[in-house]
Automatic annotation (TrEMBL):
Species, as recorded: Scytonema millei VB511283
Classification lineage: Bacteria, Bacillati, Cyanobacteriota, Cyanophyceae, Nostocales
Pfam (any one): ABC1
Family, per entry: Belongs to the protein kinase superfamily. ADCK protein kinase family.
Annotated protein name in UniProt: AarF/ABC1/UbiB kinase family protein
Molecular functions (GO terms): ATP binding; protein kinase activity
Transmembrane segments: 493-513, 519-541
Recorded superkingdom: Bacteria
Length: 547
């Protein structure tokens, strides 16, 4: 179907592909014979996408967030793609703004800079002043971009349908990638989506135990003027972090300031990744600004990632497994993350991880590039035909961007020193939660339930085994004695659990006791636990089965 539509655009694409030497896609677009394809080299692929135009640059940027699908050389090359397009003339932009405003332009803004401060494939940004004096940034959608996007999406999906029939297309999940790109690009045409993302990040980072929220800024959204094609937000006056000049201020040296900012960024992103589960997924140098008042700002919240609590827990354990160079644990955690139903040869996966991690055995942890290791983990998973959720690519890319920015900004950084206290706190949160007393009480109730149910469940299990054995006319010698032994063991286990529960409950009550009655109850529980414990020890010694 797509071969009969957009003929001029197809011819233009075919010419670009032919000019860059990728004959396979040229034959595909012109209806020729389609042999098994191979990706062009990273540099050629980047050049093709740039020549094809802004929509395909966006496609390349999306692919750069998928290290679970593409090798590191492609990710590095595609990560350099930028939306470097000339701005639309002010006369056209003014018409677009007026169409989106509820009031006349003159009644909304007292001043507008007609020169765009930034321009991308979807929109461009102008600085303005509201009539009440507040400085704002206006992000305006490029006129007619929705029609261009729809045309190129149709072509991309058509090509993906053809390539998906080959082994190449299945290995690289071309159809899935095209659908993901389509959804992401269509969503990017709705600026209210980016506004909601910014608001959620702003709320999440407004409180933290790890850093001072006053030092981190996300622009406020002005909803009275924001629409699907117009985004009005707080103007943040600053420069890209890597361009900032630091001088000694109030006794704080430039080196100390750099270290403070590095720690702030690591803690803010670790909170997003491992606590909030909602993170800014594009922390490249152009999106992190150093403001004139000394604060740090996160810009462009259009690309975010999401992690559910189970995935967060697995990823925290994965970081620990990397630190321990534990290939077996990495394999187990990878399989827990996998959403693929294909069988996996566990021994091969463990051997691949062991071979990959072995080169880090004798390195100091401060010298290890953790984001590179995560990329390699994804490569091993891909080689073993393990399909991981797409958010793993965003997660890995975010860590890589963060670590890369931190190393450029502060060459003296020690990654382990930055993350060690955070990992310790994360494991404590996983074990006890944010409310340790309530967690202990829930554990005590679970132990009580286990102590009451375990003997009966074991007895029912043995009854079933016994009855099914009789039904099959099989005789197992010594089954009754085994059953009695298991009964005795279960009873002792139950008493042990009960004693532990009483001691735990008494300790909790004692720590919270504010009246004489509660103190008396705590003492009684300790006494009962002690008597039961002595009786249990005596019964074990009398049975002669201490060992």
């Amino acid at each position: 179907m797509f071969l009969t539509q957009n003929t001029s655009r197809q011819r233009e694409i075919a010419e670009i592909l032919f000019r860059n030497g990728w004959d396979y896609m040229r034959r595909l677009l012109t209806g020729g014979k389609t042999d098994e394809p191979q990706l062009p080299t990273p540099a050629v692929l980047r050049k093709i996408l740039v020549d094809l135009g802004p929509v395909y640059v966006k496609f390349g940027q999306l692919m750069s967030t998928r290290p679970d699908l593409l090798p590191a050389s492609y990710i590095d090359e595609l990560s350099t793609l930028q939306d470097d397009v000339p701005p639309v003339p002010w006369a056209e932009i003014e018409v677009a703004i007026r169409q989106q405003l509820k009031k006349p332009l003159e009644e909304t803004f007292s001043k507008i800079n007609f020169q765009a401060v930034a321009a991308g494939s979807i929109g461009q940004i102008h600085r303005a002043t509201l009539t009440d004096g507040r400085e704002v940034a206006i992000k305006v959608q490029r006129p007619g971009i929705d029609a261009i996007v729809a045309q190129d999406i149709s072509l991309i999906q058509g090509v993906a349908d053809l390539v998906a029939r080959s082994e190449f297309g299945q290995n690289y999940e071309i159809k899935s990638l095209a659908n993901e790109f389509t959804s992401a690009l269509e969503a990017e045409l709705d600026f209210t989506r980016e506004a909601h993302f910014a608001e959620q990040l702003r709320r999440n980072l407004s409180a933290s135990k790890w850093f001072d929220p006053q030092q981190l800024v996300i622009a406020e959204i002005f909803w009275d003027f924001t629409t699907e094609k117009l985004l009005v937000m707080e103007w943040l006056d600053g420069v890209p972090l890597l361009s900032a000049n630091f001088a000694e201020n109030n006794g704080v040296s430039p080196e100390t300031k750099r270290q403070e900012i590095t720690t702030l960024l690591f803690r803010a992103f670790f909170q997003q990744l491992y606590i909030d589960g909602f993170f800014h997924a594009d922390p490249h140098p152009g999106n992190i600004f150093y403001l004139k008042d000394g604060r740090v700002a996160l810009l462009d919240c259009g690309m975010v990632g999401k992690l559910d609590p189970r995935t967060q827990q697995i990823l925290v354990e994965m970081l620990l497994a990397i630190v321990d160079i534990d290939a077996q644990r990495c394999s187990q955690l990878t399989l827990q993350l996998s959403d693929s139903a294909q069988p996996v040869i566990l021994s091969r996966l463990e051997n691949d991880y062991d071979r990959m991690l072995r080169k880090y055995y004798n390195l100091d942890l401060s010298q290890i590039n953790f984001s590179q290791i995560i990329y390699e983990l994804l490569q091993v998973a891909r080689n073993n035909k393990i399909r991981l959720p797409s958010n793993m690519g965003l997660y890995a890319k975010t860590l890589a961007n963060l670590e890369g920015l931190a190393r450029q900004f502060n060459p003296e950084i020690n990654f382990l020193d930055e993350v060690k206290p955070l990992l310790t706190d994360l494991f404590r949160r996983q074990l006890l939660g944010d409310r340790p007393v309530e967690s202990l009480l829930r554990t005590a109730l679970d132990l009580k339930s286990l102590s009451l149910q375990s003997p009966r469940q074991i007895e029912l299990l043995l009854d079933r085994v016994t009855s099914e054995t009789l039904q099959w006319n099989l005789s197992i010698r010594g089954l009754d004695s085994i059953r009695r032994t298991l009964d005795d063991s279960a009873n002792r286990l139950s008493f042990s659990v009960l004693v532990g529960s009483l001691i735990m409950g008494a300790a909790i009550i004692s720590s919270k006791a504010q009246t004489a009655q509660l103190s008396w109850l705590s003492s009684v529980l300790f006494a009962v636990a002690s008597l039961l414990g002595l009786w249990l020890i005596f019964s074990i010694l009398r049975s002669g089965r201490l060992r």
